[in-house]
Design brief:
Blueprint (H helix, E strand, L loop, with lengths): L13 E2 L4 H25 L7 H28 L1 E4 L3 E6 L5 E6 L3 E7 L2 H6 L1 E8 L6 E7 H17 L6
Length: about 170
Amino acid sequence: MSETTGVRLRAPRQRISRKAVPYWTVRALPGWIVLLVGEVLLKVLPDDPPGTWLTAVIVVTAVLALIHLAVMPSWRYRVHRWEVTPTAVYTQSGWIDQEWRVAPLSRIQTVDTERGPWEQLFGLAKVTVTTASAAGPLHIHGLDLDVARGLVDELTAATEASKGDAT
């Protein structure tokens, strides 16, 4: 626990939107499709097609794609969490490489919302909390749009009331 802020690293309590699971699935799908289409074209287009090794590569790629698309989104959903307390913002993210972060409210410099085309399609938003930390901003992915708007309002009010200098 930090003596100056009373803030400590711990698991956040709030889950992201359940809509993040299909969102992450759809976001991962095009990469696998491009890879598989490229491999299939290498198999069928040449006048002298490669041997059975390329068929094995296509099968392995398809199996890996199915495993990735089945496991990754749900795993990320279980890991991604966030929370705002009267003193700090807590985030936990990742799936293989997991990260837990905490930012005291007194250190927050900006709070932003971002919605790319896919996030708009799924009704999701990402909130970015920028601090004076060398570790960079905190990102909270996969929030329902209304939750993200409420979070930005809450953090804006809390940081305005904070006595810190955000440095």
